[in-house]
Amino acid sequence: MGKVILKDVDVEVDGVNFSSHVSSVTVTLSKDEVDTTNFGGKGRERAHGLKDDNFELNFQQDFDPGSVDATLYPLWDEEAEFVVEVRPRSGVVSETNPGYRGTCILLEYTPLAGSPGELSETSVTFPSQREGIERVTAES
After folding, report:
1. Do the beta carbons of residue 49 and residue 34 sit within 8 Å?
2. Which of these, 14, 53, 94, 118, is most buried using a 10 Å CB contact count?
3. What is the mean pLDDT of the chain?
4. φ, ψ for residue 75 (rounded to 5)?
5. Which residues pair with 27 in a beta bridge?
6. Predicted local confidence at residue 140, as pLDDT
7. DSSP string computed for 97-128
């Protein structure tokens, strides 16, 4: 099986494709660790707790209508829930091109940051709600 070189990652936030404006992506699947240690054992015991998944995206900022700021600011300001989906390649979801999809919220947004002559970028974390991030291998 071949290795995956990220060249064509597909990134959608609230139905808007931002693949041409995202320079890095991290999908983190995490569960709380619940300590269940008791007097019956000789070491620690743990159980899986609640999911705490998130997407971390680094956007190249754009203030044009329908682009980065025009999409992200209202999501933050209106405290809306929205869907984020990331796939390793553009194209349809499949066994070899799974989508990672979750209903998210935006709690913190930095619309402008940078120094003279630098590309304006903003790093955004989208925490997932309730069900966490699901791995999808067929269109639903």
Report:
1. yes
2. 53
3. 95
4. -65, -40
5. 55
6. 64
7. B-EEEEEE-----------TTSPPEEEEEEEB
Domain boundaries, the chain: 10-136
Q: Are 103 and 128 in contact (CB under 8 A)?
A: yes
How do residues 30-43 score in pLDDT, each as one tens digit?
A: 999 999 999 988 99
Judge whether 53 and 35 are in contact, CB under 8 Å.
no
Residue 111, both tokens:
């619309």
CB 96 within 8 A of CB 12: no
Q: What is the mean pLDDT of residues 124-134?
A: 97
Torsion sign (Cα): 69, 74, 77, 82: negative
Assess contact for 123 and 56: CB atoms under 8 A: yes
Q: Is the pLDDT of residue 139 over 90?
A: no
Nearest to 131 by CA among 52, 49, 57, 75: 52
Question: Minimal CA–CA distance to 83: which of 15, 19, 9, 139?
Answer: 15
Separation between Cα atoms, residue 88 and residue 29, nearest integer Å:
16
- Four-way CATH pick for 10-136: 2.40.30, 2.90.10, 1.10.287, 2.40.160: 2.40.30
